Amino acid sequence: MPANILNLPDFKVQRVEDADHDYHVYAEVSNPPGTCMACGSDRLIGHGRNEQVIRDLPTHGKRLAIYVDTRRWRCQSCGKTFMETLPAVNTKREMTDRLVGWIGQQSLKRTFASIADDTGLDEKTIRNISRDYINKLEAECRFEAPTWMGIDEIPLIKPRCVISNIRNNTIINMLPNRDQKTVVNYLYNLQGKSEVQYVAMDMWTPYRDAVQMVLPDARIVIDKFHVVRMANDALEKVRKGLREQLTPTQRRGLVHDRIVLRKRERDLNDREKRLLNGWTKNYPELGVAYRLKEGFYAIYEGADSPQAAIAAYGAWNKAVAPEVRDAFGDLIRAFSDWQPFILNYFEHPVTNTYTESLNSLIRVMNRLGRGYSFEALRAKFLFTEGTHRLSRPKFERRRETELAVVDGVEGYGLPDGAVGYDRPHGHARKVVLMPRKGAPKAARSHEPSRPQKNYGAGINTLIELLESGRL
């Protein structure tokens, strides 16, 4: 057991102490230095020892520490002294390279506290290793700039900005906040930003100003669901305004039936239709608001061009009754202030639907993780292995069979054992590979295949991993 417990050939295990929760492994370096690190001389003599404690991967469910009897050497030629280097040990930390790598990988799947408990390290150390690992992934991983970009936000202690690739249903970044400076900085440094054609967003002025500043040729499209949701919000205001007219029993009933009011009329079952009919007959103002809500949805369903949409909106706006106009005021002002960008949807119907779904899952993930840091949560969603959506490699025509010229004799394929120079009978037989005559040029090409494009972490894959408990 002592000889194999580490599985590190550069260390010679001397003894192992097995405690209840820990392995204490005493070892020394297998191959001491043969030459001086300063002058290269091989005239070395021992000059003392020093024990170093190196943390390693948990083994058999126990924490593991290696006590290395590190030797100091003195060069008889130049007089310099130096400590022997410890192979497989991280240069920044007193732990093995494989432990550092394992902690980085685990930090995308588990909480820092649980990793600290498994390794016996301080939680701050785990956090620092995770940060270095994430920075390394960030440097190595380059996501393609989306032609259809989505910009949304999610509240994690404070609002954070989420960038998505709408066409490929992937997430490509999570920014620490949603102010204009942060979004401008991200867009400015985005490689391939000139490829962005459309940007779907909600009605948040810093997003609009950032896109117009950095991506002036991109078409801004206000997300449909952020607009129609305001019609539901207006209906909710009318419902809440009726509470003073109701008895406690009626008030509780209206709170319970608010789900019926928010549903589309076409989706109501018979029971829900009866409930709706009862509320709207007894409270006509509620009925007016419900019809206006349905009418606003109809604009998005019926208009097939910006011109048709503005005409339908004009007719709808005229139909807003004075008694509910205040409730619909936010929607009317938003449509007026953001009209060009709202109307772009009817020409280019791109939405942030998948990003909205992901936001819900991020909230769930944050609760399950009992408060992941933003950096850790961001890394989980951006860099978890197996979530990236990659382009398929370009189809390449199979190469034609090569001619083998062996000792001046042509033939297709190679004789058994013919690799370079073969000497089966004591003399050299020269083997030369020649392209087949008449083969298409494409078949003879040795051009390297284009690297795969990485479009980001697939939202559907993230949903599947989270629902199955693997994220």
User: Rg from C-alpha positions?
Assistant: 34 Å
The helix-and-strand class reads alpha+beta
Count of alpha and pi helical runs: 18
Count of separate structural domains = 4
Poorly predicted tracts of residues: 411-431, 442-447
Query: Into which percentage range does the β-strand content fall?
Result: 15-25%
Number of strands: 16
Bin the helical content: 40-55%
Largest sheet: 7 strands, mixed
* Averaged pLDDT: 82
How is the largest sheet built, in terms of strand order? 10-9-6-7-8-16-11
> How would you sum up the global shape?
elongated
Distance from first to last alpha carbon: 35 Å
Task: Describe this protein's structure.
The protein has 471 residues and is of the alpha+beta class. The chain folds into four domains: 11-137, no CATH class; 148-223 and 352-383, Ribonuclease H-like superfamily/Ribonuclease H (Nucleotidyltransferase, domain 5, 2-Layer Sandwich); 224-346; 403-444, no CATH class. 40% of the residues lie in helices and 22% in strands. It contains 18 helices and 16 strands. It has helices at 97-106, 112-119, 123-140, 180-189, 205-214, 224-241, 248-256, 258-262, 270-282, 284-302, 306-318, 322-325, 329-337, 339-343, 353-368, 374-383, 441-444, 459-467; strands spanning 11-18, 22-29, 44-59, 62-75, 81-83, 148-156, 158-165, 170-175, 198-201, 219-222, 388-390, 403-406, 409-412, 421-422, 429-434, 454-458. The strands form three sheets. Strands 10-9-6-7-8-16-11 form a seven-stranded mixed sheet, sandwiched between helices. Strands 1, 2, 3, 4 and 5 form a five-stranded mixed sheet that branches. Helix 5 links the parallel strand 9 (198-201) and strand 10. Helix 4 (180-189) runs parallel beside helix 5 (205-214). It is elongated, with a radius of gyration of 34 Å. The two termini are 35 Å apart. Mean pLDDT is 82; it is low at 411-431 and 442-447.
